[in-house]
Every structure is written in structure tokens, then in C-alpha cells.
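FAQ: What does the model actually see?

It sees only this:
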Amino acid sequence: MTRAEVDPVHIRVRDLHKSYGAHHVLKGVSFDVLRHKTNVVIGPSGSGKSVLMRQIIRLEKPDSGQVLVDGVDYASLEGMALQSKRRQMGMVFQASALFDSMTVFDNVAFPLREHTKLSRKEIRERVMARLESLGIAAAHAKWPAELSGGMQRRVAVARATVLETEILIYDEPTTGLDPLTVLTVDELIAETEEKFGVTSLVISHDMASVFRIADRITFLYFGEVAVSGSPAEVLERADGPIMEFIEASGVSRDFIERRAKEAG
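And it is asked to produce this:
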């Protein structure tokens, strides 16, 4: 059995730095992302969450530090080696980012057409199987504008996982959604983990959602990790700025403590 099969840590971020000119955004960020778990990064606006996400998925190259995925440092990869490894990761963008000019089927088929040599028949079979597994096969001929917010997120997940993705990164997946649809998306994240065996990394500021879904929380505070651990550990170790941020979210402390205890 290989190390990758037994290691509970899927991604190790170590001493990550990123600056834009004189603006130092990430200041030595280090934390672990647990395999087959829901890992959430939270923090105030401007704390560096989106910048961190771009370094992990290697849309940008960090100035220094490591992003170790099963021991392979993504921060040091270039060219074809990077392209090959990056297929391990899928991205569900804020507001789904579906192609309006494509049907649901074509949106999900897009990565297969771009990155594989599968036949039309093989692509159709894989796309329809993925849509079926997520309960949206009947919508394959619809346009994104015809779908609800929750349905659009399902299509985005189908597109992000159709290449047999191992790691799924969600960028603010509940932004702009009504409370009932937020619950649907929270359930979708758990459902996707269970069905496809992915590791989930969620960038969020939705505190109620965070404490509903997280197995591990990393609090990013203006470019540095203030605390990282289970929901219960984060709540126990939260200092003034962290508790101020949590309480300002409008979620009751009783709710947070109850969910933290349940998540353990």
C-alpha cells in the first residue's frame, strides 16, 4: 500500500508567500488539507483566501513555499508536468461560471473534449453517467439560464469532477443564494464527497454553512493562519478577532457550539 493511499493529509501547504508589488498578501501560510474530508478556509474580506486558492490550484505561482499534493510540490512544477498533475484538481467557481452559450451537456463535456481523446460515444456515456449520479440527467439539454441556483451548482460539480478529479475546490459556493438553496449546496458538497471520493477544499465566509459542513477549518487573518483544526478546536482556541468575526456573522454561539461538538 502506497503512502498516498494511507496518508490522511492530502495537501500540505507550507510557508506560502505571495506578493503583488509592495503588497504582501500571503505571509508564510501553513496548514493541512485532510483527505476525503471537507476542509474550509474562512476569514475576513482581504485576508487572502482567493489568492491562496489560486496558489493551490496553480493558477498563479507563489513567491516561495510549497503546496505538496501527495508529496509532489505543485509550486515547483511547470509546463506539461504541471498540466498533468493539475488535472487532479477541479474547481467550482463562485456563481458556477457555466458557459451560457452551451447546454448542460456541453458544459460538462467541455473538459473531456479539451483534455482527452475520448470518442463522442465515450464522452456522451461519461457525461450522462455523471449527470445521472447527481440527479440532473433530465436537464442535459437545458441552458444554464433555465436552471435554479442549486441546479447550476450541480452542473458545475459535474463539470469539475468529470475528469475523475481527486480534489475539488469550491470558491464561495453559497454566495448570492437564498437560505434554502444554501442548505442544498451544503448537502451537495457532502454528497459529492461520498459519491466520488473527493477531498473538498471550500473557500467561504458563510459562517452557518462553515459549521454545518466542515471537518476542518483554517482561519486566515490578513495573510496568516490564525488557527486551524476541527470546528471544536477552532472554537476553543478562537481569540478576539476570530470570535468577533464569527459573532458578527449573525450565527448564534449556541448553534456554533452545537455544530462544533457534533463535528468533533
